[in-house]
Amino acid sequence: RQRTTIVWIANRDNPLTTSTATLKICNTNIFLYDDQSGRSVWNTTNLINHNINIKESLVAELLDNGNFVLRYSNSKSFFLWESFDYPTDTLLPGMKLGWDCNKKLNKNLTSWKSLKDPSSGSYIFAIETWKVSHGLILDQGQLRYRTDSTYSSFMNITETEEEVSHSLKNNTTNVSSISLLQMSYSGLLRLMELVGEEMNVLLHFPNDLCDFYNVCGDNSYCNFNNEDSNCACLEGFQLGHDQYVSSLTKTKKRCVKKSYSSCHKKEFKKMKNMKLPDTQYTTVETKVGFEECQKRCVMRCNCTAFANMDIGTGGLGCVMWTGDLVDVRSYNNTNHG
């Protein structure tokens, strides 16, 4: 028997009292009515399109890609409303997460409350809107995980004035397979592939203890070996004498910057197979190459690290960090920057 995967729920936080309901189009909106009570449990009042022609007949349609849309009967491509703008816990091909300036929408994934309860849970996968965008897992508002280069390998990331969005890449040649990204009720972000009747989990995040956000504290990195995690200061930093920070399962001394005789005489150490620090406090120069990036960082006394924007290609784009370096880890393979 074919397995059913629920990918979207209209009224997840306002359930029906019985198993029967009626869907109606009224005044250019879709309404879902509980047949027993007669009350509306869901509707599409958040329309952001203007100049709606009320004389044209409207159609509600479930498209082959899973998008439930409200459109004019004579228009196949213009949607007055679409479910892809209001995700539940699952990202489908063709959907986008993140900020849409034109529609004034910030689209996130919110987990189910439990395995059998589809109401909103405590885990949210959100897209940060800084100059170098990442995905974030939050648990009741607390940051738990930030995505790395593995995530970027299967996601399209767009950063413009109109939108900061993440969408699934079409990496498969199998026309019968569908890729899904799901924020699970257990707190795992899972990349899955549905092939026929089989659902396979390809990747999940967090993957180990070092994946948790800034687990070792600022200016240090986490290393995971043989099911064991440990922390170390980054090059150019050392343990402070009287500064402490909570990391992993204990409190340890905080890593602080080593002193230099001159600001412009500082040296940089190349570190491979590392997760880049959080990019909240960075300067981004999109048309600057690696060598020029290094020169600019050396000349800035508060610059603590620099990197290409696209580590994989080594092309243009300069990111310079100022202040503390946050949420860094090492990897034991060469598939990371």
UniProtKB/TrEMBL annotation:
All residue ranges annotated as the Bulb-type lectin domain in the record: 1-83
Residues that span the membrane, as ranges: none
InterPro entries given in the database record: Bulb-type_lectin_dom, Bulb-type_lectin_dom_sf, Pan_app, S_locus_glycoprot_dom
Keywords: Disulfide bond, Glycoprotein, Kinase, Receptor, Signal, Transferase
Molecular-function GO terms, alphabetical: kinase activity
A Pfam short name: PAN_2
Domain Apple: 263-337
Gene Ontology biological process terms from the UniProt entry: recognition of pollen
Protein's UniProt name: Putative receptor kinase
Organism per entry: Leavenworthia alabamica (Alabama glade-cress)
Source species taxonomy: Eukaryota, Viridiplantae, Streptophyta, Embryophyta, Tracheophyta
